[in-house]
Structure formats: structure tokens, C-alpha cells
Design brief:
The protein is about 50% helix and about 20% strand. It is of the alpha+beta class. Helix 6 crosses helix 7, helix 9 packs across helix 12 and helix 10 crosses helix 11. It is globular, with a radius of gyration of 22 Å.
Length: about 325
């Protein structure tokens, strides 16, 4: 049976392929030197901005969150389209960036002359069927793939090829770079789902027709007071078939899965966002903050506030360490 978890992951991701369809739109090739700053407003629903660091280092900042250090080969995607700022790690007077020219399929943006210290490939990603896809509900506000992780060699190769095509700006370079971006960003999302979600069995449920219909309905309306009959109707099967399907695919009962899903997504929101506890509780289906806190502690052995506090402390420590490393290497 050795290797079976990998096979299950592959099977689940194959079944999820229609939900993972994305369409990238490459926008800017950015060449920055010294101190620089680039503000990005919120995107429309279904669009996720991304930044690929082809060379150098930068910091990504979001309201209320610790800065995230990105280095050469790193990729950041914001699945919910949140407003954010990307800036250089150097201090000093900020040199205003300007669009210099249309460079093939993208705009060339730079803030000075000479050899750039940091080079970014920026754009946005369209999730097809965004309004009905459960995948978006599984993704945090920020997904970062660092180049020192397992897939670094493949990611670096794709980033390097994209960069070459965009710099060349030859015939067909835009189409080639866009196709490479599509593959690259799918790899990032796949790696995140494999690493963060697969352990819950949710991907396996989404890969089976019956449990996928049920899971998608639950993800689309977690705040609803679901009964077993409601879930069976959403899955378009009988109660007995629904229960058998959940047992076969994930060895759990539908209502037990719903409870775990609510608390798991609530924990993700506590660790990655700043929404008030009462709002999170209501949106995942709890009538009161106290009822949510009791259920959360039973599930995880810790109160929601402690999880949020620990996540903030870790994020701040990571940001300080990142700044320290950036200063040491500059």
C-alpha cells in the first residue's frame, strides 16, 4: 500500500480539474531599483492578482497583516482580490514608477534607469466559474510559493522562460508567456491544495460526483441550518445513498463532515484574516459566538482567540526575520 496517499491526491486533483480552470492576464513587467512602492486596489470578484519575482526581493503588505518578504523565484497570489502594496526592501526617498512603453504583450514599468535590482511579472488570474467553484472557499487571502520549496526547480524554470519571452517581446511571446503563466499558477494552487487541504479529505469528496454536489452546496452556504434531507436534495440522491457515498469516500458522516468543514474554514480565516469573531461564527453557521467558541475548543483544544493571537505573533516574527535577512544580504 506504500504510495497510496499520493495516488489518492492525484486522483482527487484529476477530478477537480474542471474547478481549477484559470485564465491569466499578464499586465506588467516591472523593473525597479532603490526605494519603490506599488499600490494595487481591490480586484473585481473572480479575479486574483499575482506577482512573480523574477529577480531580486520585495515586500508585500496587506491592511492589518505583517509584511511578507518575497525573494527571487517566489510567487504570490491573492485569490480574493484584496487590496495590497508591493514595495522594495531599501529605505530612502521613493522614486515614482512610470509606464515606459508597451513591451510586446505587457506594459514595461520602471522607476529609474540602469540595471534594475528587482524584476516582477505582474497580472491577474481569472477563476472560471468563480461564483460556483468551491475551490475559492478553500484558498486563503494570500497564497505564497517560495522558491526554496519542493517544486522550486520546475517553478524557477517556468519563471525564467516567462521572463525571457517577455523581455524578447517577439512574435507570439505574449501567448507563450500567458500559457506558461497558466501552468505556473496552477502548479502553485495545486501545491497549496495538496499541502494544506488534502489531509481533511475534502479533495477526495470533491472528486466524487455525489459527494462533490453535497460538498459544493455546503461550501456555498455554510451559514445555512443544514439537515441531512437538505444535503441529500442538494446532492440529488436519497439520504441512504448520500450516507453510503460519504462513508465510502471519506469514512465520515455528512453532518460530521459539515461540522469539521465549518470549524476548519473558520480556523483558516482566524489564521489569515482580521474578520471579527462574531462574523466568522455567523458565516460558518453558528447562532452565537459562545456556541462557536465551545465547538472550536472541542475540535482543536484551544479557543479561537488564542489561534488568532498565535498566528499574528508568528507572522510578525516572520516579517521581522525577513527584514533582517534582507538587510544582511543588501
Amino acid at each position: 500500500m506504500e504510495g497510496r496517499p499520493h495516488e489518492e491526491t492525484a486522483d482527487a486533483l484529476t477530478g477537480l480539474a474542471p474547478m481549477l480552470r484559470v485564465r491569466p492576464e499578464l499586465q506588467d513587467l516591472c523593473w525597479y531599483s532603490h526605494a519603490w512602492h506599488s499600490a494595487h486596489p481591490p480586484e473585481a470578484a473572480g479575479w486574483a492578482p499575482f506577482h512573480i519575482v523574477a529577480e531580486g526581493r520585495c515586500l508585500m503588505e496587506r491592511a492589518g497583516e505583517a509584511p511578507v518578504l518575497l525573494g527571487s523565484g517566489d510567487i504570490a497570489v491573492l485569490p480574493r482580490g484584496d487590496a495590497h502594496t508591493v514595495r522594495g526592501v531599501s529605505d530612502g526617498a521613493i522614486e515614482t514608477a512610470r509606464t515606459v512603453e508597451t513591451h510586446g504583450a505587457v506594459r514595461l514599468v520602471r522607476n529609474g534607469e540602469g540595471q534594475p535590482e528587482t524584476e516582477l511579472i505582474c497580472g491577474r488570474l481569472r477563476f472560471e466559474q468563480a461564483s460556483s467553484s468551491p475551490i475559492l472557499a478553500l484558498l486563503p487571502p494570500l497564497v505564497v510559493m517560495h522558491a526554496d520549496e519542493e517544486t522550486s526547480l520546475r517553478l524557477r524554470a517556468l519563471v525564467a522562460t516567462m521572463r525571457d519571452e517577455l523581455n524578447r517581446a517577439g512574435a507570439g511571446s505574449g501567448a507563450i508567456a500567458t500559457d506558461l503563466a497558466s501552468a505556473l499558477l496552477l502548479m502553485v494552487l495545486r501545491a497549496h491544495l495538496e499541502r494544506e487541504v488534502m489531509g481533511s479529505g475534502l479533495l477526495r469528496l470533491l472528486a466524487d460526483p455525489v459527494t462533490a454536489r453535497a460538498s459544493s452546496a455546503l461550501l456555498g452556504d455554510l451559514g445555512r441550518d443544514w439537515s441531512l434531507d437538505d444535503i441529500a436534495r442538494a446532492a440529488r440522491v436519497s439520504r441512504a445513498t448520500l450516507v453510503r457515498s460519504f462513508r465510502r469516500v471519506s469514512d465520515t458522516a455528512p453532518l460530521a463532515f459539515l461540522a469539521g468543514l465549518r470549524l476548519g474554514l473558520a480556523r483558516q480565516r482566524l489564521e489569515t484574516g482580521n474578520d471579527p469573531l462574531a462574523r466568522i461564527a455567523a458565516e460558518v453557521g453558528y447562532e452565537s459566538e459562545s456556541a462557536f467558541s465551545r465547538a472550536f475548543q472541542r475540535q482543536f483544544g484551544v479557543r479561537p482567540g488564542a489561534v488568532r493571537g498565535a498566528a499574528r505573533t508568528a507572522a510578525q516574527a516572520g516579517a521581522e526575520e525577513g527584514k533582517y535577512r534582507a538587510l544582511r544580504s543588501s
